[in-house]
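Incident log entry.

Two folding requests arrived from the same account within the same minute. Monitoring flagged them as a possible duplicate submission, but the sequences differ. Recording both here for audit purposes.

Request one:
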Amino acid sequence: MDGLAPPRPLEAADFDAARAVADGWFGHPVGLTLHRLFFDQLGPHGVWIAREDGAPAGFLLGLVSASEPDLAYVHLHAVDPALRGQGVGATLYREFGRRAAERGCTRVRALAAPHREGSIAFHRALGFEGPLEAGYLGPGEDRIVFERALPIP
């Protein structure tokens, strides 16, 4: 990935830069999905990739489950639309999976809305599988609950 710095853990100072680009990258307001908690308290679990000039290229918010210690959970990942299809997203997931495996995780889970065709294709390309679960996030909030074993090749 030419022109990009190596992936690193999230830091609290990354929050403002992520907030500044997230709505545009997603094409809609992300609201509290991009919660400061992931940067301030869970930063070491997440992954940040920047351009060489320091501008964000992609980030992943995730954690190791407290109730299922063998499970790493991806809450959100975002990649600059200009860089999609160039391996940034896969790099975020591989780095997250690598660090989660070092903490004892053997599997990783991520969600996708059924209308997010790009996200579904991305997760399937990384070897994720999972069912559509009606009402997973509440009434009318169906999600595909993807999961796969670690490591992510």
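Request two (distinct sequence, not a duplicate):
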Amino acid sequence: MSRLAVVTAGLSEPSSTRLLADLLADATVAQLGPDTVVDVIELRPLAHDLANAFATGFPAGELPAAIEKVASADGLIAVTPVFSASYSGLFKMFFDVLDSGALEGVPVLVAATAGTARHSLVLDHAMRPMFSYLKAVVVPTGVFAASEDWGSGGSVVGELATRIERAAGQLAALVSGRPAGRRTDPFEDVVDFETLLNS
């Protein structure tokens, strides 16, 4: 059984960012199998907790549970709206509060939404470098959805469906190739100080 975390930073309701996140999650689960556990983390309700974490240095409220879901996932789907040619501040804040190494080696599918296709470079010029810095493994295909990619009722048009399937397949391949529960607690098998002194 694999665990998939989906982080979405949409600000409106309904949100095209959340819609894209759901489509990517569904396509990935279809490849991984129905026993896949999916945890969706909506960042909008966590905005105050994120601000408090920056002000105090300690995550509180619902934030620790969201952080744990991402830290324990075997794969991650990260979707943001585009503001000023980059990811949203709320999106960046969440990944700034993660522990160092929390995403090391984790397969990540990056995706973004915007009103125009002119912002599509955000995937390669902002998101991919950030996740590479966090030592995640970013799948080759990023998914960008502009307003013209959506049909009526949230249906996808054009090449968007093809990009979703391709990216989901790449994420599923990376996740299924990794052992489930890949990370362990570094303090799980700590040798007590007395034993160390006597050895």
